[in-house]
Amino acid sequence: MSAPRPLDRAIPRPPRIDSHQHFWSVARTDYDWLTPALPQLYRDFLPADLGLFLTSAEINLTVLVQAAPTLAETRFLLDLAQQTPFVAALVGWVDMLAPDAPDQIAMLATQPRVRGVRPMLQDIPDVEWIRKPQLRAALLSLIDHGLSFDALVRPVHLPALLEMMHHHPQLRVVIDHGAKPNIAAGQREAWERQIRVVARDSTAHCKISGLVTEAAPGATLDVLRPYLDVLFECFGPDRLMWGSDWPVVNIASDYTAWWEMTQQYLLPLDPAAREAVFGGTAQRFYRIERKACPSSVSIGG
Asked: How far apart, in whole angstroms, are the C-alpha atoms of residue 244 and residue 19?
């Protein structure tokens, strides 16, 4: 009789991670962009509001991203993250031009869930801002402390961003929302040309988040598909990560609809590629430990 074969060991899949979501409280008043003119967003959005969507999509963990350019808001998010088991990583904010920016970054790096910072480049009038030599100390501090850089940019910012990455090749950079192409106006050619150069000439990662918000209301997958095709061709699944951009996604869609749309788009991919986009890439980029994954999503706190 032949010896029994060892049981096959199932390889655990990476946790499903929403790589880009926000919380805010209107009463804080440090969100200059958040006004009653955005009725879909002008209210508090807190962990209990997100938990049910995560459960429905079977998402285990999230990356919480700043939404106001203040250290006070980052401290507010740190408090929420510590109370919320599904928040595995936090991207905060510092004044990168401040003389004490390296000290601010060092302080943030001591916080267990902080994984990066995000200057709100899209809101800075100077599209060349990221080229400023005064930023060098802050960028080097990010590298020294192992923190990443979330690039909230539009296509016009990509040349300056690429130059910055050439000067700081050790800095881990992820481009938020696919660099926000103007899908509603069908402005694809210039964005595609620039995003291809960035993907080819840097190690930047990219989030497939926020795209539906850049399209006209009621946009279908057929409208978004050409842009998704470019991102997948340029970056590949190992440099792409899915994010909801919740609750901003509510402007044009909702959490479940965007999740289902991207699920449909990714269906033809092999399982390993889907797992990378829906969790593995974010887990590596944001250095999320597997033990951070809760057995179930908690919607309290």
From this structure: 7
pLDDT at 6 over 80: no
Of the CA atoms within 13 Å of residue 264, those in its CB half-sphere come to: 11
Structural domains of the chain in order of their starting residue, each with its CATH number = 17-288 (3.20.20.140)
* Nearest-angstrom CA–CA distance, 14 and 164: 31
* Contacting residues for 298 by C-beta, under 8 A, at least 6 apart: 51, 84, 85, 86
Helices (H), 168-297: 189-201, 221-235, 255-266, 271-275, 281-285
Which 8-state DSSP code applies to residue 88?
E
In the chain, what percentage of residues exceed pLDDT 70?
92
Task: Using the Cα atoms of residue 252, residue 254, residue 257 and residue 263 in order, give the sign of their dihedral.
Answer: positive
Query: How many alpha carbons lie under 13 Å from residue 31 in its C-beta half-sphere?
Result: 22
Which among 173, 135, 174, 180 has a CA at the least distance from the CA of 156? Answer: 180
What the block records as the tokens of 68 is 């106001």
CA angle, residues 110, 105, 178, in degrees to nearest 5? 105
